[in-house]
Structure formats: structure tokens, C-alpha cells
UniProtKB/TrEMBL annotation, chains A, B:
Name of the molecule in the record: Histidinol-phosphate aminotransferase
Entry-annotated residues carrying N6-(pyridoxal phosphate)lysine: 210
Keywords carried by this UniProt record: Amino-acid biosynthesis, Aminotransferase, Histidine biosynthesis, Pyridoxal phosphate, Transferase
All copies of domain Aminotransferase class I/classII large, residue ranges: 25-347
Matching InterPro entries: Aminotrans_II_pyridoxalP_BS, Aminotransferase_I/II_large, HisP_aminotrans, HistidinolP_aminotransfase, PyrdxlP-dep_Trfase, PyrdxlP-dep_Trfase_major, PyrdxlP-dep_Trfase_small
Catalyzed chemical reaction(s): L-histidinol phosphate + 2-oxoglutarate = 3-(imidazol-4-yl)-2-oxopropyl phosphate + L-glutamate
UniProt entry tagged with the keyword Hydrolase: no
Necessary cofactors: pyridoxal 5'-phosphate
Encoding gene, per UniProt annotation: hisC
Assembly and binders: Homodimer.
Pathway per the UniProt entry: Amino-acid biosynthesis; L-histidine biosynthesis; L-histidine from 5-phospho-alpha-D-ribose 1-diphosphate: step 7/9
Family: Belongs to the class-II pyridoxal-phosphate-dependent aminotransferase family. Histidinol-phosphate aminotransferase subfamily.
Length: 352, 352
């Protein structure tokens, strides 16, 4: 604590990212990165812009990237916003659409950054409890409130929400913004992008960090009605006009346009996930129905914290959350087949 | 206006960046970019990290860059913060140190983003008037207030503040944070970095965008006491944990370490500025005493707006601010000698 901190900063409870250890080389299954490299086209596009033009500001409106996303998704450029990772877009969206005088609804088990954003903007969260299977009842998301945010698939449970449920949310809450955070949607869930032109209150947020293998580049994007996108731009231009650098812009455009590579690597991750799930089931694990690039697993007899620590000692990093209701579970990112083979061998030994 | 915007977003008055026209090629003297390319070492370092590791998150703490800055400035890593451009650091600093219940002091003529940040955080600015020569009386910055921010040199006037004045500010206001925004300091003004270890209330902000020729990369940094840096980190980690991408991180480290290249290009810009100032004086212009990479000029008989438009027609872009007290002036970035030769020829023809 410092006398120089504002009351706001003194009150914050900052997010803690997954560890990036430097002590030795781990099989890193703890931050849901993609095990495959980015598209070769994206690599080439980035190399091509590492030149003297870096002395110049980037396009503050990232028009090239917005055009590429508009074309691919059959939307107008005015329905698209881009940011420095989907986390930055979430931060702008909480400011733009959630009225601090009313509670904002999200699941009690979800991406832990939401409560951090709420605190930053003085918003009171109203947590909607998932059931014992971590399933969400969309009909609980209504009444007097200031907005809704739900990841699809949810994190860290990996469980998807059917598009029919998203429609119910939008129909039940026409006067509030509903944000669907689709960071992991490409690994098997249904995107709500198809609903963007029908619902003025829908904002869909996606990222290059997971299915496009570009966590190191920091680019996210959002789809919504023109009025929502204008709101995001008002907020962004009151905070930082130039959020995406020239290299990230070039890499993002090429990654978006290389649909074939994206599909091939995504299918590989999904196939590996299905094999891992089968094997973990034979080992007695409880596993939520995952449509993400990670699985959420619990062993009936061995404590998750103990397993987490033992895996770490054996050189395998996974994520453990010491939070109520989920402290019996581990979140395990899907790596390459080789990495998952080692993971499964280690875990079989540990529980054996 | 949209019913979905929060009261905050509805109330904002966003910043408008300098234009980046795409209709034709201009001599671009409107956004204070450096006319020289980035360090060749920075170019090489960036190319070297365009590889498969981009699938992985960057170091959220940017330790390599913080180490390089610490070494160069004789400070501890705990006295350094880095961000996605100095604008992002300013946005975090307004949140971290300025109590919205009290007015924040800055000059009436200054970087126009300050009043935008103030609006974003519900802070009331108290504008301290510069005198007729745009000079600042530091003894006016005291009393009951929530903090101080001043650019050195000031923008768009280009006028530097002596280090003795910064000391007076810090001594007069020991209970409030004083932010010195040194975006342009390397072109001849005195940095306050030397005071960082003596004054717990001092935050100095710098950027790679100007003197390091990397506006396209979006990296800024701040120097301050450990408690101020901790405050910035609390705010950042409540907003976006991964603000600097892998490529920007590598380029920034190499740019910081290539001190010889930085000195050579900075000296060239300063030498060109001095020649331009001499020539403009012979043409009858009023010119503020610039220690920045731009000059702030006024012609006694020809209106600045008219000159701005005529220069644009002739393919030379400069910046005109339609604001009280400075609407007789143009802000002209210092380009290469060749670019400034064209600028001077055009302007001599226009006023002739």
C-alpha cells in the first residue's frame, strides 16, 4: 500500500496469469497455448514488415485486419473491432456496456478475469451458480441487471453452450448487452457470429491466441452491431489510440486469411483431445464434456493439488485453481500427441 | 448515441490522432515520427523472433526489457514499468495516482490526450495557464489537488522545462504524484530520470516512438519509485496482463541497447531542426524555442489554417490545432534534410 495510490488502485484485486517458469523446460500444458506453430503465411507476412516503416505509427483503425475479418465472416467493417488481445477488448467492453449502478451477471465458475474487470470499473458482479455438472441454466440470466458475460465454451470447465441457449439469452434480455467470449470456440463449439446482424445487443469476442497459434502476438477481435462497435471505439480512443503494432497487424491479416492451415491444426488438436479423453476415462478420471483445447479433469481418489505438484516435479505443467467447487479439478491444455503421450504416462504412473 | 452504451462511454470525448492519409504520398510532418529507420540491431532482433514460439504467450512482466532499461539508467528493475506505448502508460497512471475527488493540474496548452484520460476516469482537470510566450510558472502548480502532469518538452509548444523547475514541482508537492511525460526529451531537454531515486512521488514516462524510431511498434516505459511502479502493475493486471508482444519485446531491448545509433540519429534530427529554425526566422516566422523533434511556428500575416491547407495541397502534411491560443500556429515535425528542403521551398513560395 502507498499513499500515492488512488483509492481505485488501492482497492484492486489484480489477475494472476498462469506461470511462465524459467527454471527448466516443462511440457507446458498450463496456459492453453496451441502446440502447433502459427501459419507459415503469417510468419512470412510479419517478416516482410520488419523494415524501416516501423518508424511510422500503425494505422490506428487497423483497417486491413478489419477488412479481412469482415470478408471472412460476411459482416460489414462497422460490425468489427480489434484490440491488443481479447483481454483488452474485454476491458473496453466492461467499460462500454456495463452500467456500474446495476449488477452484471456471469457464471460463478468462469474466466477469473471477469471479477477483476468488475472491480476495476466499480461494477458489482451477480454470480449465477452452475449446477453440480457445471451446466448453465440460461433462464437464470434475466431480471434487473446491467449486462451479461459468458464464455463459450466456458472456462475452465471447457463445456460448450448450444446456440439455441445464446438465442434465449438474447431474447430474454433485449435491453442489455450480452457478451459471448468465444476464445475457445473453434475447437468444437458453435459460434454466435451468425446472430450478430439480428441482435443489436450481442457482442462476440474471439482471439488469435488459441486456434490461430498466435498467443505471442496479442490480437483479439469482436463482432457486434454498429452501435456496440462505435461504443468500443469511443472507449478505446479515450485510452490508447494505437493498440495494435504494424507487425501484429500484418501477422493477424495473414493468419485470418489462411483458413486451410487453421482448419488442419484445429482438427489435430481436437483429435488429440478425443484420444486423451478416452485414455483418461479408462484411468478412472471424471472429465467434463470438452469442446475447448483443454480438458477439465478430476480423479476420484487423488487430490488435484497433489497431482498438480507431482506432475510439476515430473516436468509437466498443468493449471490448478484453489477455488471453491473446482479445487478437485485440474485444467490440462491439449499439446501435441508426443506431449500428451508423456503426460498420460506420467499420470498413469502417479495414480497407479 | 446508443441505449447500450454505459453512462461513462456516452459521456466520453475521445482523442483524435493525427491523420494517416491514404489518398497519396505526402511529406509527412504531422505526427512527430522520426525520419530515420529504427536501429539495424532492432530490425535483426525482431526478425529473429518471428518463429514458431509466437504460439506461446509473451513474458507478462517483460523482464528482458525491464533489465535492459534498468542497466542503461542505473535503476533497479522494480523502478521500471513498460507498456503498449506511452499512451497506455499514461492511461494506467491516471487511474493509479490521480484521486477523482480532487482536481488534477496540467498546463492549459499541452498534450490533448490528458483531458481525454481525465474524462475517462471522472477526474476534473484544473488547467494552469501558460504565459503569452507559452512559458510555465511551476509555482502555480500547488495547493489542494490530486496530482500533476506536465510534458517536458511541452507539446505542441516544444518548449523544455529546466530540471530545476521539476525539482521545485516535486518539493512543492510531496504528497501528490508528479508525472513528467518525456516523450520528446531526447532531442535536447533534461530528463528527470536522475531524480527518480530521490523523489518517491516522481513518475517519468518515455517512449520508443520518437527518438528510437519505433512508433510502429508501440512500446513505452516509465521510471519511478517502487511503490509507484507497484501501483501501475496493480492497474495493468486489472486490465490486460499481456500488453507487449514477443516481437515488440525483442525489438525494444535491441533498440534500447543500441545507444550509438540512437545518438547519431538524434543528433541528425537536432541539427536539421536548428537549420530549419534559422531559415524560418529569416522568412519572418515566430518560432518557440524547441528542444523537441518538431517546431511550433506562426507567421505574422498569413493565417495558420490557410498555410496548413496550402501545404497539404502541395503534398506536405503538418498539424494544425483549431484551439484557442494556438490556432495561429502550426506544428511541424522535423524530417530528413531532403524533406525539410522541400517543406521550406514550398513554404517560401506560399508566403512569398
Amino acid at each position: 500500500m502507498s499513499k500515492y495510490w488512488s483509492p481505485l488502485t488501492a482497492s484492486l484485486e489484480p489477475y494472476v496469469p498462469g506461470e511462465q517458469p524459467k527454471d527448466k523446460t516443462y511440457i507446458k500444458l498450463n496456459t492453453n497455448e496451441n502446440p502447433y506453430p502459427p501459419s507459415p503465411n503469417a510468419i512470412a507476412a510479419m517478416k516482410a514488415v520488419i523494415n524501416e516503416d516501423l518508424r511510422l505509427y500503425p494505422d490506428p483503425n487497423s483497417e486491413m485486419l478489419i477488412q479481412a475479418l469482415a470478408k471472412q465472416n460476411g459482416l460489414s467493417p462497422k460490425q468489427i473491432f480489434v484490440g491488443n488481445g481479447s483481454d483488452e477488448i474485454l476491458a473496453f467492453a466492461f467499460a462500454s456496456f456495463f452500467d456500474p449502478s446495476k449488477p452484471v451477471l456471469f457464471p460463478d465458475i468462469t474466466y477469473s478475469f471477469y471479477k477483476v474487470y468488475a472491480k476495476f470499473y466499480g461494477i458489482t458482479p451477480k454470480l449465477i451458480p452452475l449446477d453440480e455438472q457445471f451446466l448453465l441454466d440460461v433462464n437464470q440470466f434475466k431480471g434487473e441487471h446491467g449486462g451479461i458475460i459468458i464464455p463459450n465454451p466456458n472456462a475452465p470447465t471447457a463445456i460448450p453452450m448450444p446456440l439455441a441457449d445464446v438465442k434465449v439469452l438474447l431474447d430474454n434480455n433485449p435491453d442489455q448487452v450480452v457478451i459471448i467470449d468465444e476464445a475457445y470456440v473453434d475447437f468444437g463449439a458453435e459460434s454466435a457470429i451468425a446472430l450478430v446482424s439480428s441482435y443489436p445487443n450481442l457482442l462476440v469476442i474471439q482471439t488469435l491466441s488459441k486456434s490461430r497459434s498466435l498467443a505471442g502476438l496479442r490480437v483479439g477481435y469482436a463482432f457486434g452491431s454498429e452501435e456496440l462497435i462505435e461504443g468500443l471505439n469511443r472507449t478505446k480512443n479515450s485510452f490508447n489510440s494505437y493498440t495494435i503494432d504494424r507487425v501484429a497487424l500484418a501477422g493477424a491479416v495473414a493468419a485470418i486469411e489462411d483458413q486451410a492451415y487453421f482448419q488442419a491444426t484445429t482438427e489435430k488438436v481436437v483429435a488429440t483431445r478425443e484420444r486423451v479423453v478416452s485414455k483418461l476415462q479408462t484411468l478412472g478420471f471424471i472429465i467434463t464434456p470438452s469442446k475447448a483445447n483443454f480438458v477439465f479433469i478430476s480423479h476420484p481418489t487423488i487430490a488435484a493439488k497433489q497431482l498438480f505438484e507431482q506432475l510439476r516435479e515430473q516436468g509437466v505443467l498443468v493449471r490448478y485453481f484453489a477455488s471453491p467447487r473446482i479445487d478437485r479439478f485440474l485444467r490440462v491444455s491439449i499439446g501435441t500427441d508426443e506431449e500428451m503421450k508423456v503426460f498420460l504416462e506420467v499420470i498413469e504412473r502417479l495414480i497407479g
